[in-house]
Amino acid sequence: MINSSLKQLGEMLQAKKISSVELTQTFLDRIQQYNPSINAYIALDEAKTLAQAKAADARIADGNVAPLTGIPIAQKDIFCAKGWQTTCGSKMLANFIAPYDAHIITQFDAAGAVNLGKTNMDEFAMGSSNETSYFGGVKNPWSFDRVPGGSSGGSAAAVAARLCAAATGTDTGGSIRQPASLCGFTGLKPTYGAVSRYGMIAFASSLDQAGPMAKSAEDCALMMNVMAGFDERDSTSLNREKEDYTRALYNSNPTKPLQGLKVGLPKEYFSEGLDASVGKVIEAAIAEYKKLGAEIVDISLPNTGLSIPVYYVLAPAEASSNLSRYDGVRYGHRAAEYTDLMDMYNKSRAEGFGAEVKRRILIGTYVLSAGYYDAYYLKAQQIRRLIAQDFVEAFKKCDVIMGPAAPSTAFKAGEKVDDPVAMYLQDIYTISTNLAGLPGMSIPAGFAQSDDGVSLPVGLQIIGNYFDEARMLNVAHQYQQVTDWHERMPELVLPKEVK
Questions:
Q1: What is the DSSP secondary structure assignment for residue 143, as one 8-state letter?
Q2: Are β-strands 400-404 and 72-76 bridged in parallel, bridged antiparallel, or unpaired?
Q3: 206, 318 Cβ separation under 8 angstroms
Q4: 215 is annotated as an active-site residue
Q5: Are the beta carbons of 495 and 191 closer than 8 angstroms?
Q6: Do 166 and 159 contact (CB within 8 A), yes or no?
Q7: Is 175 one of the catalytic residues?
Q8: Which residue positions does the secretion signal occupy (predicted)?
Q9: 237 belongs to the catalytic site
């Protein structure tokens, strides 16, 4: 049952083969068994969760059913949920109880889904390994000495270890797709503006976007049907007609379901920096797409190499502004002892933020300061436009773009923590998509051997044009009809002391 798709779980619930309370309790029991070792969850509230499950069962009994009614979903701890501890992985918000619901929490509640708990994450979503969380690092379920990726590492580990039916995440520079690649499941970052950011704690507002993290493309499509849609409370939410993201999944030619699809392969994604074993897995996936009828087209995204420096000017600049509200007066941790107001500000922020967050606030403040704005921030915005234009030109030649989601498989905890640049390069293939505002996803494509002989998941990235999520999900779904990488789950071997 824990490996069933959301559609299968929904059918079991509606046929009353299982109740939502029973399903939810199954996942709560697994969380109790495995979370002490994996650390995927920050906050659990069994009474609240089971009350929602009981309400879902009543709704099913009344015949008022939606596809996700009664299904337990884990929520990244970046989303405010009324009455729940909402920390964003930071000491600054360690005691914050949200007084209202984020838009997507409201949407899942309306669909009758069950909130299973709040998942661990890099502090304020700043990280690619989930090692910057105030609540401790998250373990990769495929190998407990490795990272799950970040910043949505708790949601990633929970999905991979089957500690939830599915989860939510956010993606500012790759925070859904990179952990999806490292943990072996399907994760989608929608077009910027497709999902409301209301109630989502801000990191870099022009880049942040919420999305689904689940076993398969079909699961992600069902979640997108709940998450996406206009919300007047978010000024960047796009007022578009609500669409059915599952509509393309079941209408394909059975022999050549992707006949005529043009897949662009950017040469910049297959050059220096890509681990050879990861490259082989991606090539095998591309070969499978040819069998499905896709035509491969060589393309170029010439400014890809500039995406990291551009991102690490723009994102810290926005973060320095967004995080200025945490001063110990209006929001967040306040130092216990101080001499005057300025001392209180200084001590509260010094104690409340971790090292990576402080680093990015300092960078952001610097690039926005008088005398440097034109040289750094303005120049970065100009290059961002060029990066977006690269994609405009590429989509004149192809329907979707494919390549690796991450340059390597999951690395060992602590391996890159003292080398910020090496850590930032983990997102080399994902960041440009955020800068352009395009949708992107990672799907399981196979496994590669690490240097010490461990078999680890590899993700294939699929990038689409604006609002082309339905086509992307179908492209992923057809691949998942002829492969079983998305159904593989890790054998969880607990350390002896917790057995």
A1: B
A2: unpaired
A3: yes
A4: no
A5: no
A6: yes
A7: yes
A8: none
A9: no
Q: Quick one: which of 444, 474, 466, 461 has its CA closest to 268? A: 461
pLDDT tens digits, one per residue of 117-160: 999 999 999 999 999 999 999 999 999 999 999 999 999 999 99
446 within 8 A of 285, measured Cβ to Cβ: yes
Q: What is the mean pLDDT of residues 225-236?
A: 97
Name beta bridge partners: 187: 213, 442
pTM of the model: 0.96
Residue type present at position 316 = P
**Beta partners for 455?**
449
Q: What is the pLDDT of residue 499?
A: 47
Sequence-distant (≥ 6) Cβ neighbours of residue 356 within 8 angstroms: 122, 123, 126, 127, 132, 420
d(CA 181, CA 172): 16
Nearest to 112 by CA among 183, 200, 203, 20: 20
Domains of the chain as residue ranges with CATH: 6-247+255-261+471-487 (3.90.1300.10), 305-384 (no CATH)
Residue 168 has which token pair?
A: 């939510």
Question: What is the C-alpha separation between 12 and 8, in angstroms, rounded?
Answer: 6
Can you tell me which residue has the tokens 């977006």? 388
Beta pairing class for 295-299 and 262-266 = parallel
The one catalytic residue in 151, 216, 237, 307 is 151
**Residue 144 · residue 174 · CB < 8 Å:** no
Helices (H), 175-265: 177-183, 217-227
Does the structure show a pLDDT above 80 at 495?
no
Locate 284 and state its tokens: 């095998």
149 token code pair: 């990726």
CA distance 106 to 157: 24
Q: Which amino acid is at 229?
A: G
Tokens read off for 46: 């069994």
What is the C-alpha separation between 385 and 314, in angstroms, rounded?
Answer: 13
**C-alpha distances in Å from residue 313, one per residue of 208, 304, 365, 406, 433:** 15, 15, 10, 21, 16
Is the pLDDT reported for residue 426 higher than 90? no
Residue in 5, 19, 76, 90 annotated catalytic: 76
Q: Work out the burial of residue 250: count CB atoms within 10 Å of its CB; fewer than 13 is exposed, 13-18 middle, 19 or more buried.
A: exposed
Pull the structure tokens for residue 215. 């076993």
- Other beta carbons less than 10 A from residue 110's beta carbon: 11
| Residue listed under structure tokens 């000017």 | 313
Which pair of tokens denotes residue 291?
Answer: 């069998």
Length of the chain: 499
